[in-house]
Amino acid sequence: MKKILAFSWSNNIESIHRQLLSYIQQNYNNEDISIEVKDIRGFETPYFSLEREQEENPEALDRFLELIPHYDGYVFATPEYNGWMPAIFKNLLDWVSRKSKNLFEEKPLLSLSASPGPWAWLNNRVYMTKVLGYFGAKSVAEYSIPSFYENMKDWELEESHKIELSKAMDSFMKSL
Question: Which domain holds residue 141?
Fold first, then answer.
């Protein structure tokens, strides 16, 4: 059985990214694939600085570094804030960069995003895929869903998005 970590990089308790990952878990978990959904909450680290690095080793960082290697692939969902990844995501990567250069061990990554508005993930997609590649993630597919609340109703994704998400998931699963 292949183990997949579906991770939301939003710290919003009612995140649409976590909802999207829960939808994936509900629809793609099977006897061959086990999908575990987690989010950044609980992995918050203090703002990185060289001085702080000398003074402490955040427990949340160690938990994150211990978590990642136990999976065969990753589905990451992240919001885009003003064209960039969330600060909490960037900050954790700053800490990770001091401990591990190949955290993801060339394992496959499916990158996702959702937006309540019509402009889902226009800029962050390129940056996120590139920066995670520095840490050994092998980007195999990506997908974004704009106008999330219009396209996801009663835990059912609108048909055209269901088809496109299915294509992204198929590409990802074939790469495991």
Answer: 2-174
DSSP state of 86: -
The answer to whether residues 143 and 112 touch, using CB atoms and an 8 Å cutoff, is yes
Q: What DSSP line would sit under 39-76, residue for residue?
A: ESTT---PPP-HHHHHH---HHHHHHHHHGGG-SEEEE
Domain count, the chain: 1
Query: What's 123's domain CATH number?
Result: 3.40.50.360
* Statement: residue 117 has pLDDT above 80: yes
CA proximity to 170, closest of 61, 64, 75: 75
Question: Does pTM surpass 0.85?
Answer: yes
